[in-house]
Amino acid sequence: MQLYTYFRSSAAYRVRIALGLKGLDYTGVPVHLVKNGGEHLQPRYRQVNPGALVPTLVDGATHIPQSLAIIEYLEETHPTPALLPSDAAGRARVRALALDVACDLHPLNNLRVLDYLTGSLGLSGTQRKDWYRHWVAVGLATVEQRLAGHPATGRFCHGDVPTMADCCLVPQIFNAARFGCSLDGFPAIRRIVEECEQLPAFRAAAPASQPDAE
Amino acid sequence: MQLYTYFRSSAAYRVRIALGLKGLDYTGVPVHLVKNGGEHLQPRYRQVNPGALVPTLVDGATHIPQSLAIIEYLEETHPTPALLPSDAAGRARVRALALDVACDLHPLNNLRVLDYLTGSLGLSGTQRKDWYRHWVAVGLATVEQRLAGHPATGRFCHGDVPTMADCCLVPQIFNAARFGCSLDGFPAIRRIVEECEQLPAFRAAAPASQPDAE
Fold this sequence. Notes:
The structure is a homodimer.
Chain A: E1 2-5, H1 10-21, E2 27-30, H2 43-48, E3 56-59, E4 62-65, H3 67-77, H4 88-102, H5 111-118, H6 125-147, H7 164-178, H8 187-196, H9 200-205
Parallel strand pairs in A: 1-2
Antiparallel strand pairs in A: 1-3, 3-4
Helix pairs in contact in A: 1-3, 1-7, 4-7, 7-8
């Protein structure tokens, strides 16, 4: 398998964690989102993924965009170890936590959106940072409320083994820290992320561990 | 089952379609996103869903937020008729199309985001509309490229029966039309949406068919 990836891409980072947790080998193909006017915007990468976003997983003739579609695909084709629990209600809880990050938080703070704010809308760097921090605060508050005190929350987001929810949460917290967002109000999240960071799969997937890291 | 819904919510509309395609009965509980300062923002609804977004599905003791987590749950608990194909690559394609809408397009144009633009950022109504149309144009261009000429595209997004991808596409096109976005460049999308609109489940799920419609 090949994974088109960028070391700092939060969505690619999710998939790198999932691949690592499942112990799957893959070849990383770096796509630099800044250099050369953004390699993801060029025809060469658009042929791989017309959405011009990373990651894309290539498995033989199958090209899969969208990090959560990739993780679900890995779950179906390589079920062990599972990244979703076995019961429908638990699976729904894990998927909802993953989507809280992947739908309601991350897309608002994607590079192309931040660039639209300061480019097309002519907003200042301060307004760009405020925007970023606002949506992080709103999004993480939701996740914290779903995790804190919930009987299904364990060492990780759901029980005592990492799931797709943890694959999404850790990269989001990395991003939040990079942009100087306060995590003071999110003790359950902080505790779970610390647990995750003990595991080799999470460490190997981190931006700083990637061959294309700067 | 109970579905917390708002007639115009694109995410709730997706779930209403899925429930209809599966022939499942449910009780709609309207949550008005504008009246009373936004009923979704009040403690009563936040107890149901701390994310303060619709929809939420309640099935016995199980509360599920996030439209795609709900649709996956319905797929697992009521597998027939299926809203995902049977092969892993096909399932990945359908999920990716659904996520193209649910992650990369819709969250940018959600009411709370539009309100932040004109509220906190003090942008004009014109800039708000331009923002909306920009992300619709970018997002639909991706979906169009994935659909047009792809061998798996059939009467619907994937083959000749509706899937989770169609559940996401139709509400997005309803929204785009409401905001006056041009659909001229998206003939494959337009054709598929017209196919969907022939089906009773899609018609019954439409905003105008809801008891809380205005």
